[in-house]
Design brief:
glycerate kinase, domain 1
């Protein structure tokens, strides 16, 4: 799936697609990869970037859905205004933040997503070797400035090419 536009709007669109998929396929797992480039409307003086804006908006919209994990980052290793490539959300992201006294909605509204994910230790920076590999590939084969996101929707059933299987594999779309 390709995405572009405002990070928050893209997050709402992804959440709607997840809900639609889960409603139609309640027992099927899904691993979804999407890529593109989102933008941020700066409203505050925080630090962060479009991938983390996207993830925090997604976490708030999904409201700790127990089946969804997501990772978003920039292939050049820098998401916005600091040295992190992106972040990860899990079903307990908002709960862990609340235990630390963090206000996720305020962090999103004031563009303090970098500080938010730092406080709960969910920012990530790829190892130097991975970053160098991505940049090398980017120079030769792909545009290295690309946002990527991966999502895992958990479920007990497993399907490969539309067929039920007992193997521990997932359908990739």
């Amino acid at each position: 799936m390709r995405f572009e536009g405002d990070s928050r709007e893209v997050a709402l669109n992804h959440a709607a697609q997840f809900r639609q998929y889960i409603a139609a396929n309640p027992t099927l797992p899904l691993v979804l990869f999407s890529g593109g480039e989102t933008t941020v409307t700066v409203r505050g003086e925080g630090r962060g970037g479009p991938n983390r804006e996207f993830l925090l908006a997604l976490a708030l919209e999904l409201n700790a859905d127990p089946s969804i994990w997501a990772l978003a980052g920039d292939t050049d290793g820098i998401d916005g205004s600091d040295d992190d490539a992106g972040a990860v959300i899990s079903p307990d992201t908002l709960q862990r933040a609340a235990l630390l006294g963090l206000d996720a909605a305020n962090a999103l509204e004031t563009n303090k997503v970098g500080q938010f994910f730092s406080a709960i230790d969910d920012n990530f920076k790829p190892p130097a070797q991975l970053e160098q590999m991505l940049m090398t590939l980017g120079c030769c084969y792909i545009n290295p400035i690309l946002d990527i996101a991966g999502f895992h929707l958990d479920s007990p059933g497993v399907v490969i090419d539309g067929k039920q299987t007992q193997q521990n594999l997932y359908t990739y779309r």
